[in-house]
Design goal:
5 strands; 261 residues
Length: 261
């Protein structure tokens, strides 16, 4: 079921979906008598790719997800922490991927989303000296687990390894929620993940019975206060942003259909 979910979800993401339409359209256009259908598929794929790669469209797609849960506020000396955060005894940082390339430090090995999540987790750890950091993510083949790389990154940023726990067997957010529940029990947990992933993650954690406080990180829909013509253009970052937005909605639909949220 896990790999079937991964396979199906991959092909309905913006880039694989539009490329599939484009290839199918070209095959029909060049090698069959269904040229009209082929042209329609090529045009449709091109339009969709333009839309998904546009800054305005991608921001519009991801903003509702990122607006659901805010980040933890800035902490100032002499100012008390928010009451809900102050009681948290676990800070859970969900995995976001890394590279196994040799010669890179742990922080440089992390993907941008994983690095953003880790930095936020470290910031919360410094504000909560009694809390424990929980990092999650399995390994690929015989390589180090993602949780171990996250732990090394947190240590390089000043976190005592004695304050870190690893969850390295959970394959997805649903598994992570169950593992955190077993570890934390009823104690309050500050959950750190990318803002676009937080609605689904928080729902799954609450369904698993975790007393969770969402603390979003890695925001991608950062809109300038003043208008700039560059905000209307296209780039690969926008395509990635659209991909996260589509992926999360498909993922939420999947767990909702299964009664997991």
């Amino acid at each position: 079921m896990f790999w079937a979910k991964k396979f199906i979800s991959f092909w309905i993401l913006p880039l694989p979906f539009t490329l599939t339409l484009l290839v199918a359209g070209l095959v029909l256009l060049l090698f069959t008598r269904r040229a009209r259908l082929g042209r329609g598929l090529v045009v449709s794929a091109s339009v969709l790719l333009l839309l998904f790669s546009n800054k305005v469209v991608s921001t519009w797609l991801v903003r509702p997800l990122e607006a659901r849960y805010p980040s933890a506020p800035e902490f100032s000396a002499g100012t008390p922490l928010p009451a809900q955060l102050a009681v948290c005894r676990f800070i859970v940082v969900l995995g976001g991927g890394h590279s196994d390339a040799a010669g890179l430090s742990a922080t440089q090995s992390l993907s941008p989303s994983a690095l953003g999540r880790t930095v936020e987790g470290v910031r919360l750890m410094r504000a909560l000296p009694q809390a424990r950091l929980v990092v999650s993510g399995p390994g690929v083949h015989q390589n180090d687990s993602h949780a171990l790389v996250l732990s090394r990154a947190a240590q390089s940023l000043g976190i005592d390894p004695a304050r870190i726990s690893l969850i390295d067997t959970a394959r997805d957010t649903e598994d992570e929620a169950a593992a955190v529940r077993a570890l934390s029990g009823d104690q309050p947990v500050a959950l750190v993940t990318s803002a676009w992933h937080m609605p689904r993650a928080a729902a799954l954690f609450r369904k698993a019975g975790v007393n969770v406080l969402p603390c979003s990180a890695d925001f991608t829909a950062r809109v300038n206060h003043d208008f700039r013509w560059s905000d209307l253009t296209w780039d690969t970052a926008s395509l990635e942003r659209s991909t996260w937005a589509v992926r999360e909605r498909v993922g939420y639909l999947w767990v909702w259909l299964r009664g997991k949220v």
